[in-house]
Write a structure and sequence with these properties.
alpha+beta, Rossmann fold, 2 domains, 11-stranded mixed sheet, globular, ABC_transporter-like_CS, P-loop_NTPase, ABC transporter domain-containing protein
Length: about 210
């Protein structure tokens, strides 16, 4: 089984049944802690090859991802579990096109993200990606119903019937006229999940999607 070192503190090993198990540097398997990153594909395929990501620090370069390989086929899902700081959010940001790799490549469908400029990346995120952030990132000036529809409208994919289904399944019917500041953490998280699904994205990325549920 091959391993990919993340943040110098643990390694992600090979996966079975959609799960990557966490191991420490001595190769001893231990229980995953707290943090969860979920990737789910619909009609696209994700391929991450040899991805390296470094950050500059006063002490010198910090390698967060070191040669990560990952393959996720169409209509499949994968959960990455590990301690805070192990590199999961960094991987999410790279796959979502919010940050750039230092080496390696990320291909989603037929598109290589490193070959897109910033404008193309923004359009690609708007039309192909659904994101659930750790901090929700709801728009404070919009009511719940408008937060839910926000990305779908930007992508030109707003479907009132689909949004009504999401509202029912997520139990948001009594909250539609509220603003984010009037919601509990769990309620905000459900709105964030609904917003990510509303545009029917080809790839859903969720960073600790059940942290407040």
């Amino acid at each position: 089984m091959s391993h990919h070192e993340l943040a110098g503190t643990l390694k992600f090993g090979g996966w079975a049944d959609g799960e990557i198990h966490v191991k420490n540097l001595r190769g001893q398997e231990r229980q995953p802690l707290f943090s969860l990153l979920v990737l789910q594909m619909s009609v696209l395929m994700l391929q991450v090859q040899g991805v390296v990501k470094n950050y500059a620090t006063p002490q010198g370069p910090l390698t967060v991802l070191a040669g990560v390989d990952l393959h996720l086929g169409e209509r499949s899902s994968l959960a990455l579990m590990g301690e805070s700081g192990s590199g999961k959010s960094t991987l999410l940001h790279l796959v979502a096109g919010l940050d750039r790799v230092d080496a390696g490549s990320i291909r989603i469908g037929e598109q290589r993200l490193d070959q897109l400029n910033e404008g193309q990346l923004a359009h690609w995120r708007r039309t192909q990606i659904g994101l659930v952030f750790q901090q929700f990132n709801l728009i404070g000036s919009l009511r719940v119903e408008d937060n839910l529809a926000f990305q779908a409208r930007l992508a030109g994919r707003f479907d009132p019937y689909w949004q009504a289904q999401l509202v029912e399944r997520l139990g948001l019917g009594d909250l539609l006229r509220r603003y984010p500041e009037q919601l509990s953490g769990g309620q905000q998280q459900r709105v964030a999940v609904g917003r990510a699904l509303a545009s029917r994205p080809g790839l859903l990325l969720a960073d600790e999607p059940t942290g407040n549920l």
